[in-house]
Amino acid sequence: MPSRKLPKISFIGTGAVGTRLALALSDKGYPIVSLVNRTGPPAIALARAVKCKKVSTSVSDASPLSDIIMIAVDDSSLGAVAKELSTVRSLKFKKLLFAHTSGIHTSEILSPLEQKGALVASMHPVQTFPKGKSSVKLKGMYFGIEGSPEAVSQLEQMIRSLDAHSVQIPPDLKPLYHIACVFSSSYLVAILNCINELSHQLNLKASWTEVFGPLMTSAMENAIKSSAANALTGPVMRGDTETISMHLRALAQHAPRFLPMYSVAGIEVGRLAAEHGKLTKQEYENIVTLFRQFIKSYPETKDK
Fold first, then answer.
1. What is the DSSP string of 223-271?
2. Cα dihedral sign for 75, 79, 80, 85?
3. Which of 3, 72, 78, 230 is surrounded by the fewest CB atoms within 10 Å?
């Protein structure tokens, strides 16, 4: 039985996401027939790696041999790129699937292409791709996808071939999905940075990851195995305003830059604790009042 013929793919944008996807798809046997990037050198380097013969800085040079065109440009450029692509006369729109990799936008932003008869979708990797990290393995990771049923079906097949998974996102909830991604990445990193910087001020003889790593791991495991509410510990969950006040005064003196984050996170811990009967309504209100007082005073406080 002959093997299934894989669709030919072009990429508009060869930044971190476009590069990782192109490399991964090429590794699985997908022909990469054209690469377009606003600056030539990154696209040329990628072309060598994926054996792509057509490289350009112009969207109009996207290969007419394409079955799928992946648009991996920054969010602010996505609408303009879609409009520009819709004017490329050499493309056979009724035989094409266009998919963008934005986490915030839906496939609706590709409507100029859909009006030409093309299938449109979005396919956002639930992963971070830091510069300088060359790993292209996408095995086990998820993509948030949405679009027309036929487009989604094609993308699901392609994602499975990468040994990855997909979840369909309701278009009207795409921003909410993206917020979850932000909390899972940058916001989590910001909290880790707080621990790191506070540790430096303590002059610990061991690294912050060694000292606080087991606590972080235990908290995450408890939340995953049970629930976030059951994993709560600490002074906020106990309604201990005296300890919270001592924390806030210490931060004001030694690291006032972390007062907003500590306070906002504390209010959320209190909300979660109250919602699950671990705090009374009055205890929660007392905690919120305490935090808000410090948040309000924060702009007048400077790091020493």
1. HHHT-HHHH--SHHHHT-HHHHHHHHHHHHHH-GGGHHHHHHHHHHHHH
2. positive
3. 3
Residue 240 to residue 248: CA distance in whole angstroms: 13
Paired sense of beta strands 32-36 and 55-56, if any: parallel
Q: For the chain, give the longest Cα–Cα distance.
A: 74
pTM attached to this predicted model: 0.89
Tokens 């839906």: give the residue.
Answer: 106
The distance from CA 274 to its chain's CA centroid, rounded to whole angstroms, is: 30
In the structure encoding, which two tokens stand for residue 58, read together? 């112009």
Distance CA 279, CA 64 (A): 63
Q: How many angstroms separate the CA atoms of 95 and 67, rounded?
A: 7
Report the distance separating Cα 210 and Cα 174, nearest Å. Answer: 37
Measure Cα distances from 104 to 12, 24, 134, 153, 171 in Å.
18, 23, 25, 21, 10
Structure tokens at 219: 């908290």
Tokens of 236: 């906020």
Distance of CA 198 to the CA centre of its chain: 26
Cross-strand bridge partners of residue 68? 9, 97
**pLDDT tens-digit readout, 38-80:** 988 889 999 999 999 999 999 999 999 999 999 999 999 999 9
Cα-based distances in Å from 70 to 18, 167, 184: 8, 18, 25
Q: What is the pLDDT of residue 304?
A: 45
